[in-house]
Write a structure and sequence with these properties.
Blueprint: H1 5-10, H2 23-31, E1 39-43, H3 49-57, E2 62-67, H4 70-77, E3 85-89, E4 103-109, H5 111-114, H6 120-130, E5 131-142, H7 162-170, E6 175-181, E7 194-201
Parallel strand pairs: 1-2, 1-4, 2-3, 4-5
Antiparallel strand pairs: 5-7, 6-7
Length: 204
């Protein structure tokens, strides 16, 4: 059963929110200056820390943060603007046609691990549909979020594996991997537990 994300935000229960942008994203942008450009989407953006970080580094880019929680987006919009960022209350799995084949980049962070694992193939299809044919998906994927208090099947975050990611993205015929590595920087407690992927759509 999926959480009621908006209710959790309303109640102030958001342990996934670290208050800062994802360290692997900041590191990647530092090592790839001006690489992110054009129209960029951040699905499941929450309070928008990554959205603002991208908009700050890429001031000419149009950065759209989407989330199904209107409460989260209200909080995100209350932060000082960093650049050309904006927010929309949207469901990644039901994007309006205006957002189909619309984005040059999609940044993934915490959306894939938050959805029901049974919807992961739907996720692959959704991001492929949203990207331009020459667009790119860049993301940090949480491989192992489990500990004594949180086990597989216990709800999000849901872990994954390199094999599963390759199977779902490449095996679907929709993507090819162009960059893959374990980040050298991460949030506290996540060192070695995440995988950075950069993928390009394949012609179907």
């Amino acid at each position: 059963m999926q959480p009621d994300w908006d209710e959790l935000y309303q109640d102030g229960i958001k342990p996934w929110d670290k208050g800062t942008a994802a360290p692997p994203l900041l590191d990647w942008m530092n090592r790839n200056p001006q690489k992110l450009s054009g129209k960029i989407m951040v699905p499941g953006c929450g309070l928008g820390h990554d959205v603002r970080a991208i908009a700050d580094v890429c001031p000419v880019a149009e950065v759209l943060g989407i989330d199904i929680s209107g409460t989260a987006l209200q909080e995100a919009a209350a932060f000082a603007k960093s650049g050309a960022e904006r927010y929309e209350e949207l469901d990644l799995f039901d994007l309006p046609g205006v957002h189909h084949q619309s984005f040059d980049w999609i940044w993934e962070h915490t959306c894939f691990c938050a959805i029901d694992p049974e919807r992961r193939d739907d996720y692959v299809e959704a991001v492929h549909r949203a990207l331009k044919p020459d667009g790119e998906l860049l993301g940090i994927f949480y491989l192992d979020p489990y500990d004594e208090d949180h086990q597989p099947g216990g709800g999000p975050p849901h872990g994954t594996s390199v094999a599963e990611l390759e199977s779902r993205f490449v095996g679907s015929g929709r993507f090819e991997i162009t960059e893959k590595y374990v980040p050298e920087v991460s949030y506290r407690g996540r060192a070695g537990l995440e995988l950075m992927l950069r993928l390009k759509p394949s012609a179907l």
